[in-house]
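Question (not urgent): is this output format expected?
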Amino acid sequence: MGYTELAEAEREDRGSARSGEGAFRNPPDRVAAIFKERLDRLLPEDLAHARFILWLRSSGLETPVAKALKKKNCDLLEEVKSLNYSVPLAEALLSAEPKYGSVANVQEAIRTGYPEVTSPTMGQALDFLQQVFGEKGNLPCTLLVVDEIQQFPAYQPIAPTGGA
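Got this back:
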């Protein structure tokens, strides 16, 4: 569900409240629940794995790869958990995109293209948000909350500058 669908759901809720149905039909945390459901159902938690799935989608390869895996009684999201080592995933990608030539070439392309990311940069995080929630180059109003930032070793608080 994208920004447009969220906006339509909000308009429906407002309409029902105005028509005398009382309080909004849906709880206020509906938006958070929709985002969580969207991410949990459609993307793995690991950034490299999620980026791989997004690449499959943008390349039109997700469905052919998923179908090839299903023929082997495998699930795409389960195989992506072993992204760098999954032979069935590499074979499915090779069958969907023969340009790689061999399973070994597919695995090498995956390893180099989707390395493990333990601490994403701000640019990587924003790019990911754009890919997941963006619509035609635009992001919906988004608030990013960072909690417990002092726990990160590289965190350096900004010292106050002079003044009164």
